[in-house]
Amino acid sequence: MTLSREEIYRIFTETVIIKKPRYGIIKGYHELPYICLGEALESRYNSLCVRGKIHVSPQFVIKPSYYKAKYSDLFGENAVDIEIAGRIFGFIGFPDKPVECKLEYLEVTHLEQNIDTALSHSLDELERKEDITTGVFITPDSRYYPISIERFITAILDDEFAF
Q1: How confident is the model at residue 68 (pLDDT cuts 50, 70, 90)?
Q2: CATH for the stretch 5-59+93-160
Q3: DSSP reduced 3-state for 54
Q4: What angle do CA 83, 90, 139 make, to 5 degrees?
Q5: Which residues of 67-84 are buried (b: 16+ CB within 10 A; e: fewer)?
């Protein structure tokens, strides 16, 4: 199913940011962990919890094509990281089956708790751990939680670049 612009915009604007990290997008490599809660995709569960990490890379420069400088001319030899790797993720659904997956940086879990209880438990856990880096938000449509992740990133960037 393809979403219309209006549907994407609705999910984006209806995403509720509960907790932002106490720091924003800073220079250099780092991770912004998040917890995204939403309605369950399976009727026998009450909510869905997606935990992940957004990887923030160092600043980059977009240069005109007529400027023929090499990467090392712009950033120097010391700034070249040969460990850089990119990945593209596609999100697919599995009809009539709850999706439970855990990767290095993504965990999707169906919960028996309702969203309010799951939110309370998540915030309590973060407080006990004195975690100031993890963001928490609620998606209005769990099937399209990546749109809510974009809203989370936008909220951080809005704070970062507010004039």
Answers
A1: low
A2: 3.40.1530
A3: strand
A4: 105
A5: eeeeeeeebeeeeeeeee
- In Å, how far are 3, 5, 80, 92, 147 from 10, measured between CA atoms? 11, 9, 40, 21, 10
Can you give the residue ranges of every domain in the chain? Answer: 5-59+93-160
Cα dist from 110 to 5, 38, 48, 81, whole Å: 28, 10, 5, 38
Residue-wise pLDDT for 4-52, tens only, equals 889 999 999 999 999 998 865 555 556 789 999 999 988 899 999 999 9
pTM recorded for the entire structure: 0.72
Q: Locate the DSSP E strands across 57-134.
A: 101-102, 106-111
Q: What sign results for the dihedral spanned by CA atoms 40, 113, 89, 71?
A: positive
Query: How many other CB atoms sit within 10 Å of the CB of residue 135?
Result: 21
**What six digits make up the tokens of 162?**
């507010």
